[in-house]
Specification:
This protein is mainly α and 190 residues long. The protein has one domain: Hypothetical protein af1432 (Orthogonal Bundle), CATH 1.10.3210. It contains 10 helices and 2 strands. A two-stranded antiparallel ribbon has the order 1-2. Helix 1 crosses helix 2, helix 5 crosses helix 9 and helix 7 packs antiparallel against helix 8. The longest helix has 23 residues.
């Protein structure tokens, strides 16, 4: 897959995600990077768009939190939670931090296919009308050799995951994502 992705997109993915360096497993780090690079290559969205568009399409003009602000916050919160679980629960509830971090980084990668830009605003595009980002995210990740345990996090981080049993890492990412969305939803009455 790496040969099919232009190097500029790999560099863009690395610039967007300094947190990739937290993934100790070299293969998982590379596959996570490649997934973001593939999404950038296929998307009409640019890194600049990701750093300016609101993190949710449900937001009105008052919300200034960008897509990348939200996504990076989710990764940091998930990692902090995983660290604390490993500290306090040791062997009773072990958290695989590499899987957790990769899953948090990739959770919304499918939005790069789901969204389009129209009149300077992000909107659900033609592709997104048929497939929500958990589905397209798993597809992108599988094309790049991402392991099933990480794809599980992508698939279950949103409401679709309420239909299956989540792993510990998937629960953490799901809650990190929603705890950084629901308060805005309530505050802005989205």
């Amino acid at each position: 897959m790496k040969q099919e992705i232009e190097s500029k997109f790999i560099e863009q993915a690395k610039q967007l995600w300094p947190e990739l360096e937290w993934i100790k497993n070299t293969e998982l780090r590379e596959n996570t990077t490649l997934t973001w690079a593939l999404a950038l290559q296929k998307s009409v969205l640019t890194p600049e768009d990701l750093n300016t568009i609101p993190f949710t399409l449900l937001a009105g003009p008052d919300l200034k939190v960008t897509f990348m602000d939200h996504k990076r916050a989710v990764v940091h919160i998930a990692k902090d939670c995983g660290d604390q679980c490993n500290k306090f629960f040791k062997n009773d509830l072990p958290v695989n931090l590499d899987v957790l971090i990769a899953g948090a980084i990739l959770a919304d990668v499918g939005k790069l296919l789901e969204y389009e830009m129209k009149d300077g605003k992000s909107v659900v595009g033609a592709y997104g009308k048929y497939l929500r980002h958990p589905f397209s995210g798993v597809s992108l990740a599988e094309q790049c050799g991402v392991s099933a345990d990480v794809c599980h996090i992508i698939a279950t981080h949103a409401g679709e995951g309420n239909m299956v049993k989540r792993t510990t890492e998937a629960y953490i990412v799901h809650h990190a994502d929603f705890m950084t969305f629901e308060p805005f939803k309530e505050r802005l009455k989205i």
